[in-house]
Specification:
Layout lengths: L3 E5 L4 H12 L3 E8 L11 H12 L3 E5 L1 H9 L12 H18 L4 E3 L13 H11 L5 E2 L11 H4 L17 H10 L16 H13 L5 H6 L4 E4 L5 E4 L3 H10 L5 E5 L7 E3 L6 H13 L9 E7 L10 E5 L1 H10 L1 E2 L1
Parallel strand pairs: 1-2, 1-4, 2-3, 4-5
Antiparallel strand pairs: 6-7, 6-12, 7-9, 8-9, 8-10, 10-11
Helix pairs in contact: 1-7, 4-5, 11-12
Length: 341
């Protein structure tokens, strides 16, 4: 009787190899891919696009699931703690496998297959961590890891003969050379270079997110998205001021602006559209935002420039503008004295 597996397919080399190894054993495979706003993949080479490309190459169905809400809840309430940043890796993986298990049962599949390699990721791919993930996700014995199978006790599919354990590997550690050699041997080609990751492991972003969660326990996704962009300052009165670094960031921040945010920009020179977050913005914060806008725009050599501000309506547009005078030199001083994350 043919068996069916649900593969966690990121689109990277490891998960592609795991899928190919199962297909080569005659296993029917369907794939799922998890995306979140914390992924560091680029728009041109995202995990989702690589997973779709891999699924098309293998001729298997792919389901894309958004895990942002689940992961954000884990960030706020991690049962198993954080890694080096604000990354609750074990809680994230437990939630991911729990969802995968639910999908497995809904699709009438028999087990889960992943490209996990023992020791490749320091927090979530240790033997003790993997055991916790299996147990708390309700998938004990039902996860097959073809790349490292011989380093674990046999899973149920291996014990029952659904898959051939002898055709699997004993890869461990962070080097990708064994996987690249295997890819050549079994015909996996055109895979992406190792890249991407999770913003929650990056200390700078983790600090920004931790501060936001102090201010706003349940932030809209747009507020979290804005943390990825620009130079982030805190005004002398504790307001967030975000100064974009280029035109693309300017457009993104304008589109992410929430009702009550203030948009600040020079009227006679090209430069950033600074975003001041939150309603009831005090005059001191507004003056500091105007000075920073002048400092980072093309009028930075002028003694004084005219800066306009208007309140966003949450749809990338704004209300009637108000004009202010700003000194680029004052903005340069503020850039060195205001708190910056």
């Amino acid at each position: 009787m043919s068996r069916k597996a649900i593969a966690l397919l990121s689109g990277g080399l490891d998960s592609r190899l795991a899928v190919k190894m199962m297909l080569d054993q005659g296993i029917t495979v369907e794939a799922i891919n998890f995306v979140t706003i914390f992924c560091t993949c680029t728009a041109k080479s995202s995990c989702k696009s690589e997973a779709r490309k891999a699924a098309e190459e293998f001729g298997i169905p792919l389901k894309v699931l958004n895990g942002t809400e689940r992961l954000l809840e884990a960030v706020k309430h991690p049962r198993h703690g954080y890694g080096r940043g604000l990354n609750p890796c074990l809680d994230c993986r437990i939630g991911m496998f729990r969802e995968a298990g639910e999908y497995m049962r809904s699709r009438g599949a028999d087990f889960i297959v992943t490209g996990e390699v023992l020791g490749e990721r320091p927090m979530s791919q240790r033997p003790d961590a993997l055991a916790v993930i299996e147990r708390e996700s309700g998938l004990e014995g039902l996860i097959v890891r073809p790349l490292s199978a011989h380093l674990f006790e046999p899973s149920i599919p291996e014990r029952e003969g659904w898959v051939d354990r002898e055709r699997m590997m004993a890869i461990r550690g962070r080097s990708r050379k064994p996987q690249m050699q295997l890819a050549t041997e079994i015909g996996v080609r055109d895979y992406p270079c190792p890249a991407g990751g999770c913003l929650l492991t990056e200390k700078g972003f983790a600090a920004r997110l931790a501060r936001l969660l102090e201010e706003m326990p349940d932030p809209p996704v747009a507020e979290i998205q804005s943390l990825k962009l620009g130079r982030l300052f805190y005004s002398s009165t504790g307001r967030r001021i975000i100064v974009p670094r280029n035109e693309a960031e300017t457009r993104s921040l304008e589109s992410l602006a929430q009702p009550g945010d203030m948009l600040v920009y020079a009227t006679d020179f090209n430069g950033p559209t600074t975003v001041v977050k939150g309603g009831d913005i005090d005059e001191r914060t507004l003056a500091e935002a105007a000075a920073l806008t002048a400092r980072y725009g093309q009028g930075r050599e002028e003694a004084e420039i005219t800066v306009a501000c208007r309140r966003a309506d949450g749809a990338g547009t704004a209300t009637e503008e108000q004009k202010l005078a700003a000194e680029p030199a004052e903005g340069q001083r503020l850039a060195g004295t205001l708190e910056r994350l």
